[in-house]
Amino acid sequence: MFSSRFHWDLRPNRIARLLEEKRRAGVPLLDLTESNPTRAGLDYPAAILEAFHDERVLLYDPQPAGVRDAREAVARYYAGRGVNLDAGQILLTASTSEAYAYLFKLLADPGDQVLVPRPSYPLFEFLAAMESVAVRSYPLVYCGGWTIDWESLRAAVTGRTRAIVLVNPNNPTGSYIKTGDMERLVALSGERQIALISDEVFSDYAFAPDPARVATLAGLREGLAFSLSGLSKVAGLPQMKLGWIVVTGSPEARRRAWERLEWIADTYLSVGTPVQCAAARLLGAGESVQEQIRRRTRQNLEFARHAVEGTGATALAVEGGWYLTLQVPHVHTEEEWTMELLDRWNVLVQPGFFFDFASEAFLVVSLLTLPAAFPEGMGRLLKCIGASNFSGAHVQ
Known about the structure:
Elements: H1 14-24, E1 30-31, H2 47-50, H3 68-79, E2 90-93, H4 96-107, E3 113-118, H5 124-130, E4 134-142, E5 146-148, H6 150-156, E6 161-167, E7 177-178, H7 179-192, E8 195-199, E9 213-214, E10 224-230, H8 231-234, E11 243-249, H9 251-268, H10 273-307, E12 314-315, E13 323-327, H11 334-345, E14 347-348, E15 350-351, E16 362-366, H12 374-386
Parallel strand pairs: 1-14, 3-4, 3-6, 6-8, 8-10
Antiparallel strand pairs: 2-11, 4-5, 7-9, 10-11, 12-13, 13-16, 15-16
Helix pairs in contact: 1-11, 3-10, 4-9, 10-12
């Protein structure tokens, strides 16, 4: 009766079941996974609400690529980061997830492949499967910092590969693409006639400057590439549901891609009028939210780095984003560590396997966590590691 796309076990896992039990029982939890900025105690300016006082929100005037002045506002956002774009390169979507769906439709036939980094964003397999596209992974390797395993990436490319996906900075490793990486990626994509898709939602959240860093592919002038971002992270406004695709590369490749993308967008017309009308003011008002997030994530990162010194945990190098990866002793599995922390210590973390880490044992914490909760949660986590002689089988 149902599509074969749904080949996953849809039942809640052990961690989700225990979390639900804790919440039903009213147990106070220290949530070190919070990534929703609207629940992170940030101060949102009144200008965000005022941005919707616009008579145009009462008029339905569908434009497949999005309202022109909203796209021009996005172009100004990039201009402020040193990249000059024409609004005609920017197509609005309801979210980055929808942007992926559009691009998989654009680039791939059923059974074709896209390459995605490992570890990384946990929804790629689901997003691709919804478009009947296969996912193949290429590894990121850690040697004091995260880099692409180039030999494995090349080996992963087949005759059915249609795109290489980059997450820049990666989620959760927080690693950026460097200029040398970019040159090799452009050369590989040109050689094999495949597109580059760069998810740049966390690009504004670098912890320190790096002249070798590539913050965006939006200025690329060869091949074919797509840069993705949106209000969710840029302005801390996930509820506004506005993302975008920047189409970049050689003029001819851009033209052909744009014609087809606009056709896809015209089929769905999913972006709401109010948020498009408010986009320019939301981007402006969101700058203060972005600065609060920068302060929060840097403060929590600094605390975590000092807290783990001399413990059994190691904070892996991170360049940007909202997450920190902790390597913990492999005396227990990631699931056992996560279950123990939740069951006995009332602390919620994410196990590395949620992000498809290739080995154990890693735990991921959100640097967006409230300052009142992060130190206590980290303290309990490190105490748990110090008392790691639990059986690992106390929760069924």
